[in-house]
Design brief:
heterodimer, A: about 110 residues, alpha+beta, Folate-binding fold, 2 helices, about 15% helix, globular, B: eight-stranded mixed β-sheet
Chain lengths: ~110, ~425
């Protein structure tokens, strides 16, 4: 069973306590943006087979949204961090690269 | 190709069954094909079959990473129905269901199509109103369905418990012509027919790159070398985003795990398919006597072909509520498949930003029932550049906001 540590309350929660929220770090486009940008924001996803940055909500705990880096091919979790982090955190990227030398952020 | 018939069986019986041929050839790839299909699952093989049968294009290769029919074609719960709300969905699923009726004869291969009927239970007032609406829509679309009373549900399926603790059965949407088929046989039958037309099915051959020249597809790189093509069809379900990435475009798709399970075999007790979408489980009985059970998909991206424990528990709990007599059945096997979910829960059969590259994906949790219709439409699209069945399912519908919103219509995975 998938275990993720909530960065707010520190609880190591299993997936029944959490709700998945899809790809993280999407750039938001709203009214006035081009059709392509708006479509990209709403629907297009990287859907990586490999390291995936994603959103989760600690629904049956503190209720807060957070972000996680997880491999979709092995279910290995590389770390979780606050939803208020605008860019992919350097320490998590370093942690992934320490384990997977050929991986880089695309 | 050796024709299968009762006379062939008698003849072979006299010769100790030594004379049967292999059902399909195992060729090495040629340097170039008119069309290449990536993915030898049901949809890919059906696409190749109708390219040959309907459009006369037989210089075709079907490339498969694993073995044919080893992905979701071999992992689903084999339900066939066409009781959809939206017109484009009803059109393609009904085409598919009608092709299933004669598929054994078309392919000269027994796919064991069993039109035993499908009931979708209405267990809330909302669901009842929804299915009444679907039944009306279906009668306009020429799809034969009917809303039936709880008593009729009980007559069709005596093991059902109408007065459930949470959600009593208020009726059901009945499609008498729906049913099940033997999933492996569908893949094997198409593969045999494709091979007989001279097409090459190349298994254990992974695509590693897609080459383009002047914005058009020219060749693919595989673990068995470079293969040239005029047209390319990507039909790889859960791995669609992965292969599309090789061709340089993105898709509105997320891949998640969907699970199914079967019980120990028991005596015949249920000769219809029952889907209970409010409590979220569905069940039918296989010819071997196993109860074949499916339920909801996981919510997070996953390529591992393993699903979460709590979804199995949720599905089984829902079905024990609906069919109390199965409460002491042992479950024999459980497995997962990776399904490709689109934003509107409807498939994509479309041209792509790359010239001469076509994609058929996004069938999500309900692809098996669509195999013949999907192959028919995809083949027409690849051969002619458009298809009445496929045109509404284009990739551009997400940009233009022309959704075929079956997620709202069904309320759940379908």
């Amino acid at each position: 069973m998938l275990l993720l540590t909530c960065p707010y309350c520190g609880v190591s929660a299993d997936e029944t306590e959490l709700s998945p929220g899809g790809e993280a770090h999407l750039k938001r486009f709203g009214p006035g943006s081009s059709d392509e940008d708006f479509e990209g924001y709403l629907f297009m996803r990287h859907n990586q087979k490999g390291v995936h940055f994603e959103r989760w909500r600690h629904t049956y705990g503190c209720g807060k949204w957070f972000l996680a880096a997880r491999c979709t091919a092995t279910l290995e979790v590389f770390g979780t961090y606050s939803a208020q982090t605008p860019e992919h955190p350097k320490e998590i990227i370093a942690k992934i690269q320490a384990k997977r030398s050929d991986w880089s952020l695309t | 190709m050796r024709h299968y018939s009762v006379f062939a069986i008698v003849k072979e019986a006299l010769g100790y069954h030594q004379g049967w041929e292999r059902a399909w050839r195992n060729p090495t790839p040629k340097a170039h094909y008119d069309a290449i299909i990536i993915g030898a699952g049901g949809h890919g093989l059906a696409t190749a079959y109708y390219l040959g049968k309907n459009h006369g294009i037989t210089n075709v290769a079907v490339i498969e990473k694993g073995w044919l029919g080893g992905g979701n074609t071999g992992r689903n719960t084999t339900i066939i129905r066409s009781n959809y709300l939206q017109d484009p969905s009803a059109a393609i699923y009904e085409k598919s269901r009608s092709l299933y009726e004669t598929l054994s004869q078309d392919l000269n291969y027994n796919i064991m199509f069993s039109p035993r009927g499908v009931i979708m239970l209405a267990q809330t007032e909302h669901e009842k109103r929804g299915y009444l609406r679907t039944a009306h829509a279906n009668s306009l679309q020429g799809v034969e369905t009917r809303f039936i009373t709880p008593r009729e549900v009980k007559e069709l399926c005596p093991i059902i418990h109408l007065e459930g603790p949470r959600y009593p059965v208020l009726g059901g949407l009945w499609q008498a012509r729906g049913g099940t088929a033997r999933h492996d046989a569908v893949a094997w039958g198409y593969a045999r027919a494709c091979s007989a037309m001279g097409m090459d099915i190349i298994q254990q051959c992974e695509v590693t790159a897609i080459h383009r020249e002047n914005g058009a597809v020219s060749a693919i790189e595989t673990t068995k070398g470079r293969i040239g093509c005029n047209k390319l069809g990507i039909v790889v379900a859960g791995h669609s985003s992965h292969v599309a990435d090789m061709a340089g475009f993105r898709l509105p798709i997320e891949s998640v795990a969907l699970q199914a399970l079967v019980s120990e075999p028991i005596k015949p007790c249920m000769d219809v398919v029952v889907m209970a979408n409010t409590v979220h489980g569905y069940m039918s009985q296989s010819d071997k006597g196993e109860m074949v059970i499916g339920g909801g998909a996981d919510g997070y991206n996953n390529y591992t072909q393993r699903g979460s424990f709590q979804h199995i528990e949720e599905t089984v709990r829902a079905l024990v509520e609906t069919f109390p007599m199965i409460s002491r059945l042992k479950m024999l096997r459980q497995w997962g498949g990776i399904v490709d979910m689109t934003g509107d829960r409807s498939p994509i059969i479309s041209k792509t930003p790359v010239e001469n590259c076509f994609i058929n994906c996004g069938w999500g949790t309900g692809g098996f029932k669509a195999i013949p219709g999907s192959g028919w439409a995809m083949a027409e699209l690849m051969a002619k550049g458009h298809s009445p069945l496929a045109d509404e399912f284009g990739l551009n519908r997400f940009r233009e906001g022309r959704f075929i919103d079956e997620s709202v219509a069904a309320g759940v995975a379908h």
